[in-house]
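Re-run with default settings, no changes from the original entry. Doing this only to confirm the output is reproducible before filing.
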Amino acid sequence: MKRESLLDDVRSRVDARLAGFFELKRLDAERISKESVVVVDEIASLTMRGGKRVRPAVLFAGLRCASDAATLADVLDACAALELLQSYLLIHDDWMDSDAERRGGPTTHVSLARHYADPHRGASVAILAGDLASAWSLELLAGARWPRGRELEGSRAFARMQEEVVLGQHLDVVGHRDVALVHHLKTGSYTVRGPLALGGILGDADEIQLDALEAFGEPMGIAFQLRDDLLGTFGDPAATGKPTGNDLRAGKRTALIEEAEKALFGTIRGPLDAVLGHAEATDEQIAVATKLLVDCGAKARVEARLDTMLEDAARALDGGTLRTGGVAMLRELRESLARRDR
């Protein structure tokens, strides 16, 4: 199955499962209180608005790396759980970063602030919406078809994934100097390593197979975040759904900034300092700063590191311990994870 057809098939199947799930949750909310429906609708709006469903596709590939017989239908609830986990993380992350746009629409706290005509109330309800999405992800995970005796292992893997991304987010918020560690925890955990582990456990993988999936997932998680850093500064807003220079204005310590700090000193880095962490920076200032990131070689060095991670991931699939069908899926997904435009 080719990359686009794999992603398209996973996306359509997972979207259908999520749509049905949200319909039931909306009915539940109406029975409790019609005022609660807005929370369901906001979670559904964010979850169903865009997104390639890469994490479910990675989980499915991990499943097929361990089992030739397992199908996407066997893991749909686990796939949907990953998407709701992401919605929970995005809702909270957008509020922490004061982002106004996500996936081409208003972020949840902004949308709810408009609904209530009160920014504080909107942000408060958004945090609750994120918490609810997290609870729903656990509900869906509980409905997954686990191999006999591996339910606890799968639940612990899911909890570990969530724990790592929360700790990674904490380090990101406080501006931790070790960008690689932040990448490992914040993105690699629930984008590649975690979904692969869940897929492997659902496919009843043995320890050798789980180790092989980890060896692939570690560099791929880093590659995914490096691409995210590049898109956050150089991406096309029409594709990313976020404003140009969003990461620079937010003051995010990305791999690009880490590389720039190694190359720029004193007044030379003035154009970068003028926009980094300054929400009011103009588009013209952003353009000058991004050019500086290119001229000093920061962009090229991040791209080179991304290429190295892709090579490391490819080598991890050569051990012969994983099922060939799953390996073929991972080889196809490798480019989607690290070469995407959004």
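The longest helix spans residues 3-32. The first strand starts at residue 101 and ends at 102.
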